[in-house]
Amino acid sequence: MASKKLLLLPGDGIGPEAMAEVRKIIAYMNAELDSEFVLDEGLVGGSAYDAHGAAISEADMAKALAADAVLFGAVGGPKWDRVPYDVRPEAGLLRLRKDMELFANLRPAICYPALADSSSLKKDVVEGLDILIVRELTGGVYFGEPKEIRDLGNGQKRGIDTQVYDTYEIERISGVAFELARTRANKVTSMEKRNVMKSGVLWNEVVTATHKAKYSDVKLEHMLADAGGMQLVRWPKQFDVIVTDNLFGDMLSDIAAMLTGSLGMLPSASLGAPDAKTGSRKALYEPVHGSAPDIAGTGAANPIAMIASFAMCLRYSFNMIAEADRLEAAIAGVLDDGIRTGDIMSEGKIKVGTVEMGDAILAKFKALA
Ligand code: NAI
Ligand code: MG
């Protein structure tokens, strides 16, 4: 059996509280399902800064690079608001993304039937929604050069960011999108702004060529990113996989996420390129939310985003599809039972804390075995 080295980086605030609920699931899987996860642990964010003076230590970075997958909680909090920029908590996450070359960010937007009423959109628009946004994460306007504020010498300054994409970057991100589509509804929608951006013209060409060369069995459609934003709130169920650049993906994935509810529900995955020999990818899984200092320590955090991130880890890093499906079904089942943390609470439901929610999901996961 392939190795299953998992590095846990719980981080700060509610990160460790949510991670504790995943630990219980892993302990059960190891004890009862012979899953053979080998766990290691490290510090990241403010807790790493307190221990080592850096947002992640070199030793923990090395562990992350050697692991088959990294589970990341959340970083940051008021305690570290004034630490130097280079060692601020977020620097730990950015370093991980960069050194692990995690170029593909996967953000699912799933509507759990039990929560279809609490969306800001009409129930029939979101009920049954299951889309996946694949955002390019290591290129584009966030990294392109020149990137500066230039003094024009006449009392004016010029702020400059540059959108840059090379062929290989578009090929590899669209390859991820096409491969994921094959495991889902087999459709990819590529979004760019080829009408006003040269990088958009190239994006469109390369996605089209990649599709023709290797993935012509998948249905491909192109959409201008602004029109895509409209369609996401008008009729999101028309989409399966959406692939887009770093900037548009940042915004479109946040929009898609909010179609279905609370930050406490949203998982994500960030994937690297497959290893030429083994075919395995570097990967990091994390909830979309931050460290929630306002509720940290109160036992009120919703652990579902973290647990659903672990389900993505089972699916994408370990090909444990049955277990991933079962864990996601356990989350849906607990919601069907009316169990809610404060962030998703509504009238007539049963309010619980982090630990009770984790226990309920584990019990359901066991019952579905
Ligand atoms: P946040 O996501 O931590 O919290 C926003 C709001 O959502 C808060 O009211 C919080 O209580 C609530 N919330 C978030 N997750 C929840 C959960 N699982 N259950 C119940 N309620 C939840 O974002 P905010 O407040 O902007 O940032 C707080 C800190 O987290 C900052 O230091 C920020 O830099 C950091 N941060 C870290 C991220 C990461 O580690 N990837 C991402 C975003 C923010
Ligand atoms: Mg964003």
Could you walk me through the main structural features you see in this protein, from its secondary elements to its overall organization?
The protein is of the alpha/beta class. 40% of the residues lie in helices and 20% in strands. The chain has twelve helices and 14 strands. It has helices spanning 14-32, 46-52, 58-66, 89-99, 123-126, 167-182, 198-214, 225-234, 246-258, 304-316, 321-336, 354-367; strands at 5-11, 38-41, 69-74, 104-110, 130-136, 148-151, 157-160, 187-192, 219-224, 241-244, 267-274, 281-287, 339-340, 350-351. The chain has a ten-stranded mixed β-sheet, with helices on both faces. A two-stranded antiparallel sheet has the order 6-7. Helix 1 packs parallel to helix 12 (354-367) and helix 11 crosses helix 12 (354-367). The longest helix has 19 residues, at 14-32. The mean pLDDT is 95. 1,4-dihydronicotinamide adenine dinucleotide (NAI) binds at residues 14, 74-77, 90, 93, 263-264, 286, 289-295, 301-302, 305, 343. 1,4-dihydronicotinamide adenine dinucleotide binds at residues 14, 74-77, 90, 93, 263-264, 286, 289-295, 301-302, 305, 343. Pathway: Amino-acid biosynthesis; L-leucine biosynthesis; L-leucine from 3-methyl-2-oxobutanoate: step 3/4. It catalyses: (2R,3S)-3-isopropylmalate + NAD(+) = 4-methyl-2-oxopentanoate + CO2 + NADH. NAD(+) binds at residues 77-90, 290-302.
